[in-house]
Design brief:
single chain, globular, alpha+beta, 181 residues, 7-stranded mixed β-sheet, Aminopeptidase
Length: 181
């Protein structure tokens, strides 16, 4: 249990964190999408996205940023930011995608997501990006409310595939105040 705010730490993940991110990524992906997709599809996608070689390569890539959050020295969430191709609905200048912002289910509601988002947005503005965008399951009302509180607005929708199934996602975007200058 978290007793003080100081017990929550965030750092830029490095290649030495790859194994931790493999386990945390697979677990949080299953927690997040387990009711939206067949579990076999989620496990297959998680295995493709969260394997040691791929994460080690991504962590070594200077264009991709992983932020790892620990609570009382226990890994409990991570965020991934990456400049990606953008859907037409993302109209802001100099965009970067918040590809993942996942919190282990036992830590939801304890300030972990806020710490991740704060770190992610600091990275966005300090690295010259003017727009941060993301995809979120339409059925994930808690996450949508969280993103709205952080200034993200809905700008479109799309389908997110996993195996044989696709589910609707919202596209959300946040432009920095500095983007207008």
């Amino acid at each position: 249990m978290i007793t003080t705010e100081e017990a929550i730490t965030l750092h830029q993940a490095t290649t030495t964190d790859a194994a931790v991110l493999v386990e945390l990524g697979r677990r949080t992906m299953r927690q997040t999408y387990g009711t939206a997709f067949a579990i076999e599809d989620i496990d297959r996608v998680a295995e493709q996205r969260f394997n040691l070689k791929r994460l080690t390569d991504e962590l070594a890539n200077p264009e991709i940023r992983y932020l790892l959050v620990t609570a009382n020295q226990q890994p409990c969430g991570y965020a991934k930011l990456e400049p990606t191709s953008t859907p037409d609905a993302i109209t802001g200048m100099h965009p970067i995608q918040l590809v993942h912002l996942y919190v282990d289910s036992q830590w939801i509601g304890k300030g972990i997501g806020a710490k991740q988002m704060q770190g992610a947005l600091e990275f966005v503005t300090s690295n010259g990006f003017a727009t941060c965008w993301l995809q979120v399951l339409e059925s994930n009302h808690r996450a949508i409310s969280f993103y709205r509180r952080w200034g993200f607005v809905e700008v479109g929708s799309d389908l997110y595939p996993a195996g044989e199934t696709s589910v609707p996602v919202l596209l959300m975007m946040r432009c920095s105040v500095d983007a207008a200058t």
